[in-house]
Design brief:
- With about 140 residues, this protein is mainly alpha-helical.
- The protein folds into two domains: about 1-60; about 60-138, no CATH class.
- It is about 80% helix and about 0% strand.
- It contains five helices and no strands.
- It has helices spanning about 5-55, 60-80, 85-90, 100-110, 120-130.
- α1 packs antiparallel against α2 (about 60-80) and α4 (about 100-110) packs across α5 (about 120-130).
- The relative contact order is 0.08.
Length: about 140
């Protein structure tokens, strides 16, 4: 076997391995993303039931507090998301409507600031709120 042929076979093997790795990465990412949404549903549903029971029982103050806490948690999740690079996500999917959807929540939080007891958490929530309060139109 000639040196040229060895180089070509090695290059072809490397391309095939790279393509296989990338395909596995994409498939795994899709599977993980789909699983995440389904795995989160039971906890979200139980929390919603808790809020509904408070509302039906007339305890609107506690129901409001529960929803405010959930909203703060949503902002903290977005804060954490925004701290990382999302090369693969941006490569596979368009940016989507998230900023425009989050704008509504951010506008609400501007009108009703977080009452979280930790100042650093309130600061992080405020950072996300400022970022999304006037999201650019698509």
């Amino acid at each position: 076997m000639t040196t040229h042929r060895k180089i070509m076979l090695t290059a072809l093997a490397m391309v095939a391995l790279s393509a296989t790795f990338f395909a596995g990465l994409v498939a795994g990412y899709y599977a993980g993303w789909g699983d995440y949404a389904g795995r989160d549903v039971p906890a979200s549903a139980v929390y919603t039931v808790g809020v509904l029971k408070k509302l039906r029982g007339g305890d609107t103050a506690q129901a409001t507090s529960m929803l405010e806490t959930k909203l703060d948690g949503d902002f903290m999740m977005r804060w954490a998301y925004d701290q990382r690079s999302h090369f693969l996500t941006s490569f596979l999917w368009p940016s989507g409507p998230e900023p425009r959807l989050l704008e509504r929540a951010a506008q609400y939080r501007l009108e009703h600031p977080s009452e979280h007891p930790a100042p650093e958490v309130r600061d992080d929530i405020s950072e996300v709120v400022r970022r999304y309060a006037n999201a650019p139109a698509k």
